[in-house]
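User: quick one - fold this with iron/sulfur cluster bound?
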Amino acid sequence: MTVAAAPPRVATHCPYCALQCGQWVDRTGAVDGREFPTNRGGLCQKGWTSGALLHHPERLTTPLVRPARAAPLGPVGWDAALGHVVDRIRALQAEHGPDAVAVFGAGGLTNEKAYLLGKFARVALRTSQIDYNGRFCMSSAAAAGNRAFGLDRGMPFPVTDLDDAEVVLLAGANLAETMPPLMGHLSGARLVVVDPRRTPTAERAVASGGLHLQPVPGTDLVLALGLLHAAMADGHLDAEYLTERTTGFDEAWRLAAQWWPERAERVCGVPAADMRTVVGWLAGATRRYVLTARGAEQHAHGVDTVTAWINLALALGLPGRPGSGFGTVTGQGNGQGGREHGQKSDQLPGYRSITDPAARAHVAGVWGVDPDSLPGAGRSATELLAALGRSGGPKALLVFGSNVLVSAPNAGAVAERLAALDLLVVADVLPGETAMAADVVLPVAQWAEEEGTMTNLEGRVLRRRRALDPPPGVRTDLEVVSGLAQRLGFDGFPADAETVFDELRAASAGGIADYAGISYARLDAGEALHWPCPEPDHPGTPRLFTERFAHADGRARLVAVDHTPSAELPDAEHPLRATTGRVLVHYQSGAQTRRVAELAGVVPESFVEVHPDTAARAGLVDGEWARVVSRRGAAQARVRCVPSMRLDTVFLPFHFGAEQAANLLTNPALDPVSRMPEFKVCAVRLEPV
Ligand code: SF4
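Assistant: Sure. C-alpha cells for the protein plus iron/sulfur cluster:
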C-alpha cells in the first residue's frame, strides 16, 4: 500500500493580530500551529480557522467597476480597471490639485506594502493626504512612548521575558480574548486587570490571586494617578532609579499629589484599598510589568492616560530593568511595522518625521527625487475621512486593507463622506462593506498567497511566505500599487516583495526604526531580528533601554498629566456610558471572521452587555434586540444581561456592520497629540426595538 505524501508546507504567520503566531500552511490552504516563541505551537480559534478564507466562495477574483455612481458594480479586466482609476486621478488632480487624491492604508499591511504605499502617495500622486487605520488603534501609545522613552517600540522586550513575571498589571488589555496564546506567558504571574468589564482576562486575574479593578470608562488616568500617589505615600518609589534614569518626577508628582487614593476612588470607582494593595504587589515583586492596550489609549486624552501608566512604571523603576518593564500590546498584525515606514500622514520610512529636513533629504535621496517635491504632513485618519468630498478636501480615496465603514468612529458620517466622493477605490480580498460601496474594487491576494515581512508586537521582523498561488485574476497589493504608478508614468515601484524590502532597508537606514541590517536571507536562515538592526552583522535589539533611553540625555521622561473628563458625558437623554471592544472569535471589522462559519456560528450578531437592573430600567430583557442610541446614531444589538457589568456602563463589540455597527455610536473626538478617536466612551441610552 502506498501512502500519499503530505503536501509540502510553508512556515509563515497568522494573518490576524500582532502576536503573529507561527503557522504552517500547505498548498491546499490547510493551516497548522507552528512552534514559535510567541505561541509555542498554539493558535487561537481565529488562527486555526484562517485557512477557510483562502478558498472562500465570496473571494473577489475580478476587478469591479461602477460605471456611474448609481450603477451596479460590474466585472472588467485589470487594464480597464487600473486605466479607469488613473484617468480619474489625473482628471481630479488637474482640476483640484494633488491633494484631491487621498490614500488610506492599514496596520495589517506588510512592511513592504506600507512602505510602497507611502512612496506612491508622496512620489507618484504628490499628495499629502495619506493616513491609515493604525491611527485608530496605536497612535496614542506610540506618542506616549516617544514622549517618555524617545522611541516607540510597543514591547521593548521579547514576550518570553514575561514567562518569569511575578506581577503583571494589564491596563485596558483583554488578552484572553484578543491574544489567547499570550496568556500562556503570564500563567505564573499574579495579574491585575484594569477594565470596566469583567472580561475573561479579569476572571483570570482573580483566579491568579490578583485583582480586577473596574473603573468608570474614561477614568483610567485617575486610577493611574491614584496608584502613583499610593506608591509615593507607602514608600514604594524607586528613588535611585528615578534619580539616575529619569527626569520630570517633581512636575509629574505635583499633579499626582492631588489624587490621593480616596479622591481617585470617588472619580474612578476603584476602591482606594485596592490601589494600595496593587502598588504593594508591584513594589514587592522582583519581576513585574505594566502593559497597556486599547482600553488605555482610545480616549480623547489617550496619550496622557498612557503617560500616567508610564509614570507609574518609571516611579517603580520598571522600564529597562532586566526581568521587568513597561510595554504596549500592539493590536493589528503589523501594528508595529505599519507605523514605521511612511503610511502615516506625518511620517517617512524608518520612523522619520516628514517635517525634518534631514529626514526628507535622506528619503528623497533613496527615492531619487528632489526633497522639496515631497509634500508635507497631511490630515490624520479621522480628519481625512471627515474632509472627503468637501470643499478643499480630497475628491478621491484609495483604500488598502481597511474597512472604514465599520471601523471608523461615527460610521454614519463616514458613509456620507464616502458617498460624496467622485472616486472610491478599494483593494480587498473579500466584499467588505467599504469595498461594496466603492466605484472600483481591486481583488488582491491574502497572507498565505504572498511574500513579505511583518513586525510583531515585540519589534521582531518576521517573514510572511507564499504557500499557494492566489486565485486566477487576483493580484498582490504590491502589483496593484506598482501598476498604478507605472500608468501614472513612474518607474521605481517594484512589485517584488524582497526588492521593495531592500529599498525599505536603505530608506530606514539611520532612522529610529532602522532595518538596514535585516535581510530576507537572514530571516530565512532563522535569525531572530528585532529593530534597530543597522548593519548586516548586527544581532538586532531584542531588549531596549537596558542601559539608556532613546532621548539625547539617555533618560526617560515623566510627564505631568492630569485627569480630563471624557469628551462626552452622560446626561438625562443619554444616561449610560458605552464602551467598545473585541470578542474571542472575531477580528477588527469582522470582514474576514464573520465569513468563517466556525467563528460566525459562535457570535453571529452584535450584542450589548448590560447589567440586568439597567436593562430592566430600559424595559429590556435578556435575549431581546435593543436600540443603543448616542448623539450620532443608533445601533441594534441583542441584549446580554451580565451581572458583573457596572450599572452605568454598556459594552458592544465593534465587529459588525450595517445597522449593527457599534461605530454608528462612537465619538470622533480626537486626542490633541495623537489624533486618535475616543472609541472607548460615549454617552448612550437603551431602547427596545
Ligand atoms: Fe492569530 Fe493572534 Fe490568534 Fe495568534 S493570537 S492565532 S496571531 S489571531
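One thing worth noting: The pocket of iron/sulfur cluster is lined by residues 14, 16-17, 19-21, 39, 43-44, 46-47, 179-181 (CB under 6 Å).
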